[in-house]
Amino acid sequence: MEIWINPACSKCRSAIQLLDAEGASYTVRRYLEDVPSEDEIRAVLERLGLEPWDITRTQEADAKELGLKEWPREAAARDRWIAALAAHPKLIQRPIITAEDGTAVVGRTEEAVRDALSR
Predict the structure, then answer these.
(1) What is the structure's pLDDT at 100?
(2) Is the per-residue pLDDT at 32 higher than 90?
(3) Which PANTHER family did the record assign (predicted)?
(4) Would you say residue 119 has pLDDT above 90?
(5) pTM
(6) By the number of CB atoms within 10 A of the CB, which of 42, 44, 76, 83 ranks highest?
């Protein structure tokens, strides 16, 4: 299990606390420092069963500068979104937990973190 975090994020800290309380074995990836490649983002999206716009923090300053809210949310624009996430990792929703069964969840709630633990 791996968890992508921003240490300044309260949701990330809560997820880590829950993982620790449950005795989970996991690896921390500080994705703002260890930026995921476009291929890694594609792989996580596949595991999540989501599209890149589904995990994009559109309220961030970078998102507003790029005008992401106006970008098309369709298959033809998918690579453009992924490239933006790789170039601006702060836009990636967090925390993302990759589960042992090959799936992943966005662990913003206790329920989602527990879901990842049960997989």
Answers:
(1) 87
(2) yes
(3) ARSENATE REDUCTASE
(4) no
(5) 0.93
(6) 44
Active-site pick, 3, 4, 8, 9: 9
SS3 61: helix
Q: In angstroms, rounded to a whole number, what is the distance separating the alpha carbons of residues 43 and 104?
A: 10
Please say whether the beta carbons of 25 and 2 come within 8 A: no
Contact present, 95 and 1 (Cβ < 8 Å):
no
The domain 2-118: what is its CATH number?
A: 3.40.30.10
Decide if pLDDT at 37 tops 90.
Answer: yes
By the 8 A CB rule, do 45 and 55 touch? yes
12 carries an active-site annotation:
no
pLDDT, mean of residues 92-116: 95
- The C-alpha atoms of residue 48 and residue 57 are separated, in whole angstroms, by 16
